[in-house]
Amino acid sequence: MQFFCKIVRVFLVLNPSIIIFVDAEPFLVPNDPFIRHEIRLLGDDGDLNSLQNTWPMDLGGLNASFDKSDLTLPHRLLDQRLEDESISGWSPFITSIGLADDRITARSFGPKPRSSFTSKASVSWMNDRFAAKFSLNAFYGMEKDWMGRKEDGLALDGSYIAARIGNWSASFGQQERWWGPGWDGSLILSTNARPIPAIAIDRRVPEPFETKWLSWLGPWSFHSFIGRMEEERTVPNPYLWGMRGEVYPTIFDGLEVGFFRMIQLGGDGRPDGLSTWIDAFLSQDNYGANTGNNDPSKEPGNQLAGIDLRWKPFDTPFAIYGQLVGEDEDNFLPNCLMFQYGIEAWKKLENSTLRIFAEYADLTSYWWTNDPRTNNISYGHHIYKDGYRYYGRPVGHWADQDSQILSIGGLLQKKDEIGWGAILRTGELNEDGTGRSSVSDGIATDYFSLDLFNSRKYRRLGLSVSTSIGWENLEPKGRDNQDGVTGNLTVTRTF
Fold first, then answer.
1. Tens digits of per-residue pLDDT, 86-101?
2. Cα separation of 131 and 202, whole Å?
3. Domain interval for residue 288
4. How many domains does the chain have?
5. For the segment 49-87, what is each residue's pLDDT rounded down to a tens digit?
6. Residue by residue, what is the 3-state secondary structure of 120-154?
7. Backbone angle region of 180, left / alpha / beta, with phi > 0 → left and psi within -120 to 50 → alpha
8. For the domain that residue 388 is a member of, what is the CATH number?
9. With contact defined as beta carbons under 8 Å apart, do 31 and 490 qualify?
């Protein structure tokens, strides 16, 4: 924390002008819970005909999903971003600075820095068919993974090239992704780990099917990507193939449903031919599990699949949501399950809007079978021993395997573009005390944290400032407690 404070003082004294951020680009990335809150308000009021559990969002698709002629946005957070989507040519040059202490246990939907010092410079270009963004990131003080590796240095996180093809977009790059309705975490895909380099295809505008046989599905979308994971792994350079479909059925008002699969396959020394991809897609991948595959060397890979939903009953100002993820499919049925469920409520006040939520995540897997032998199943694999992780952090929920976490939080967004938020978390990490856990050092650990955060925009100056301060307490069984103040600062501006 002392290092954090010293850096802040030096930075503000010597270089107060380099703190900038703007996003004139076609994608809305998952780094701002207050914009997400505003989009949710529009959707729940019936003003936005768009699916909202998959990020990044295509701003062109979002723009086409509602008529703004007689619409008053709850705040000013979204309107400028939608205007940016129609701008052709080069965006202004962007830089940002992020500072944090060395406690980065929990990473929810938001802009928390990934290291003690993070600096970013980016520029983007767009016309009516193509878009590109170059983002150069510098990391210092990156947390170590369980192998003692630190990925300090330069990275292209956030960079991409993209093209619009009718109602679809195709892209290649390192984009942040978030799949699911959760506010504090997603079991399948979140911003907890760094973005994976990938090619992707996404449906832009979730228009319903025109045929009467399928029109009852309502607005629908589909997303898929194929990425390549890092080299420094037990099996170097494996592929990660993700697929997600969503519907908003007209026969069940207020219900948004998503279906997804994630397949990890290939890598150095592993089969990765066409037949391997087909076997993985057809779920013929568990060695000896009624697949006809009795040769472990030919096992196609590791996969997770599941469903998530969010339901707003009738005209009430609250919604329930949940996510269910199955590990290790066998003939299209999961062997072990993780789950997350939550409730959220919102209220429009005179000069602000309020949202509160509570969600619970269980990553133990054995609740399904009541069999302790299923410990260390979540995000793990007997071949891909680094599991469902990228540079040491889970691609899914930040709590990692064999954990149970309760999160209670709230957002207060004022119309003067000042946002306040808080998240309280409590639970147990890696409860059996074995296996590879990125957040508990392989030890059963009681966990408690409280985060208070703030976001403020200064439009005339082109500035955006995000701050957070909190308290974190980890109690590893048989070891001394680890507790202390946490904090981070991200300041951005446009030249």
1. 677 888 888 899 888 8
2. 14
3. 2-494
4. 1
5. 789 999 999 887 787 777 665 666 677 777 777 776 667
6. EEEEEEECCCEEEEEEEEEEEEECCCCCCCCCCEE
7. left
8. 2.40.160.130
9. no
